[in-house]
Specification:
By secondary structure, this protein is mainly α. It has a single domain (12-143), classed as Orthogonal Bundle (Arc Repressor Mutant, subunit A). It contains six helices and three strands, in the order ααβααββαα. The protein has helices at residues 11-30, 37-49, 54-61, 65-77, 99-119, 125-143; strands at residues 52-53, 81-85, 93-97. This is MarR family transcriptional regulator. Residues 8-144 form the HTH marR-type domain. GO terms for molecular function: DNA binding; DNA-binding transcription factor activity. It holds the Pfam family MarR.
């Protein structure tokens, strides 16, 4: 029996390895659309939330603001995003989707569905639902301030 501290069977390592495997597939398949996995994540955040300041994008993506700035620069040059001044505070530049990215989003969704379908082959709907519920709980437990988790 493997040692319980073996990183290959640790929950944290399995979770990270699963995320990395999915990210690699997004990277590979996103290349067909001309976008990287990082660009894909940024587009999804803007699609979900609407136009956002770069600082908020950095928080959501958990990367440094300068990295987001460079990423947005490249994506703007490629026609994926636009920047414009916030109507309430003209010092803030909002990042929004272009028609090109909106038109491509359906293709991105199909690719994502294919990746998840492939990833979940052999997993029963019941096991999927249990795993999904457990992951949502894990996220909630680690996102809430200590002592406020509901049981």
């Amino acid at each position: 029996m493997p040692c319980p501290t073996d990183p290959s069977i640790s929950f944290g390592f399995l979770l990270a390895d699963a995320a990395r495997a999915v990210r690699r597939q997004f990277q590979r398949r996103g290349a067909d659309l001309g976008i990287s996995a990082s660009q894909w994540r940024l587009l999804v955040q803007v699609m979900r939330c609407g136009a956002l300041p770069q600082a908020r994008l950095a928080e959501l993506l958990e990367i440094e603001p300068i990295s987001v700035s460079r990423l947005v620069d490249r994506m703007q040059e490629a026609g994926w995003l636009i920047r414009y001044p916030d109507a309430e505070d003209r010092r803030i530049k909002l990042v929004d989707l272009t028609e090109k990215s909106r038109a491509t989003f359906a293709d991105m969704r199909c690719i994502a569905d294919d990746i998840y379908s492939e990833a979940l082959q052999g997993v029963s709907p019941e096991a999927y639902q249990i795993t999904r519920t457990a992951l949502l709980r894990l996220i909630r437990n680690l996102s809430e301030p200590t002592g406020t988790q509901d049981e």
